[in-house]
Amino acid sequence: MLKDFARATKPEKEELKARTAIEQARLAANQIRIKNAKVPVMVIFEGWGSAGKGTTLAKVIKEMDPRFFQAITKDSEPTDEERRRPFLWRYMIEIPKEGQFKFFDTWWKEEVTTARVMGTLSDDEYDRRIDSINTAERQLVDGGYLVMKFFFHIGQKEQRRRLDGLKADENTSWRVDEDDYWENDNYDRCLAVYDRYLRDTNRSNAPWYIIDARDSSWSALQVLEYLNTGIDVAIHNRGTAAPLRQNVFRLKKTPPLSEINLNKTIDENEYHEELKRLQQRLSELHNELYRKRIPVIIGYEGWDAAGKGGNIKRITKALDPRGYIVHPIASPERNELAHHYLWRFWNRLPKSGHIAIFDRTWYGRVMVERIEGFCSENEWRRAYNEINEFEKELVDAGSVLIKFWVQIDSQTQLARFTDRQNTPEKQWKITDEDWRNREKWDAYEEAINEMLRKTNTSFAPWYVLESVDKRYARIKALRIVVGAIEQACAR
User: Would you list the DSSP string of 183-206?
Assistant: First the structure.
């Protein structure tokens, strides 16, 4: 794309000034339209060092209301804390909420191409990150985001002239460092890497726009025109159903809930012996996890009163409280609803060596949100594949991912609900909503069966915990967790 870039004809000075003023006013008006339409907008600036991204940004936002946009500079080199998370983590937690603009001075491109130019990123890892980026951008666009990507292009001689000019002025010399000169000295090498990256991530849902950056005023007009056109299209498409994607992951067969044998029990003596042994082993493994910097994610889903809380408690009792956190996931808060539905889970991922336990998970999208009408049919049907992609990203980043469905039958639930209602110290556990959900048992069972069938992947399988006997379910869960962590530590 860069190697065969053809520059457009730059308008004369007066025309340039007039058109820029028109487009700035148009963007100010579009900002209100975006706010009212609740479209989140990501504007990504990439390009050569000293190509004028900052100067251009100042011209682009000149007439915008500063209350409803944010400009963020992202360092190409992740911090130690960020390195302990999946590659996409430090980016996905920054995505804008609905109705808001975010301008990013460099984004995930910089981290990938810098490592590629320096030879620290293998071919396989490069390909994996490209897949991650394309998947993330597609998910965002399908979720209603407008993603606009601009690359500011200048030639080698022009870049050198600008670098020398900035370096010579004591007020701007801080903006130039050795990396900028290294990029200029190795211009052709960098050009090849940048060009390939742009081609590999140029998709119709989030295309690249190459900006002729020889002059900041001309750069600003190009960005403004592209951006305003993109906004018109995004608002026109708002509410249009995104296409459903075919699953590309290998799925494991899973029986429907009605066929699961719930008569499994464990002797009380065996239960206490196994509980002590498994908790001791898990405690030992927690130290090894920390030493080897392995993150663990354990997700619990299940029927109300199935015993998720007691199951979680038997796991956490074996852990150092400084190295784990339990996330009780309730209905999303207003700020969470204003983001992509996976955003609040990206924000809760553990750093390496730590354990995150989710009491309910991202699967709410295809259960409660589906049944209660909190999302459209298109959104929950898309979510199966999006969740598989999300979990693949976590596993590829080195996470141990364990998913439990805690299963009971309707009669057992009724007995437990009744016991909670009639026992004062347990009444806080039962709500009117629990009784309402119970009336929809058949609808939920249908949704759960579809969820298990479509997300029981080879890399993130479901484990069903037969929990009519809660003690049996607790021991089974501990055995699975210990086995998965032992396997990860042995690699």
Answer: HHHTHHHHHHHHHHHHHHT-BTTB
Q: Give residue 8's pLDDT.
A: 86
In this predicted model, what pLDDT tens digit does every residue of 463-484 receive, in sequence order?
999 999 999 999 999 999 999 9
Cα 131-137-140 angle, rounded to 5 deg: 135
So what's the pLDDT on residue 425? 87
The answer regarding whether domain 257-489 maps to CATH 3.40.50.300 reads yes
Q: What is the DSSP string of 470-491?
A: HHHHHHHHHHHHHHHHHHHHT-
The domain ranges of the chain are: 13-237, 257-489
Token pair for residue 233? 């299209």
The pLDDT assigned to 148 comes to 98
Residues of the chain with pLDDT under 70: none
Instruction: Identify the H or E element spanning 95.
Output: none
Rounded Cα–Cα distance for residues 373 and 357 (Å): 27
The CA distances from residue 389 to 6, 342, 410, 455, in Å, are: 36, 11, 33, 10
Distance between CA 30 and CA 99 in Å, rounded? Answer: 11
DSSP state of 151: E
Residue 38 falls in which region: left (phi positive, over 0), alpha (psi -120 to 50) or beta: left
How wide is the angle at C-alpha 473 spanned by C-alphas 486 and 464, nearest 5°? 80
Instruction: Decide whether 13-237 matches 257-489 in CATH topology.
Output: yes
Q: For the chain, give me the number of helices (H) and strands (E)? A: 20, 10
Other C-beta atoms closer than 10 Å to the C-beta of 159 total 20
Q: How many residues does the chain have?
A: 491
In angstroms, the CA 66 to CA 59 distance is 13
pLDDT at 76: 77
Fold of 13-237: Rossmann fold (3.40.50)
Q: What residue type is 368 in one-letter code?
A: V
What is the predicted pLDDT for the residue at 433? 86
Nearest to 346 by CA among 106, 125, 93, 170: 93
pTM: 0.94
Backbone phi, psi, residue 211, to 5° = -105, 125
Predicted confidence (pLDDT) per residue in 219-261, tens digit: 999 999 999 999 999 999 998 999 999 999 999 999 999 999 9
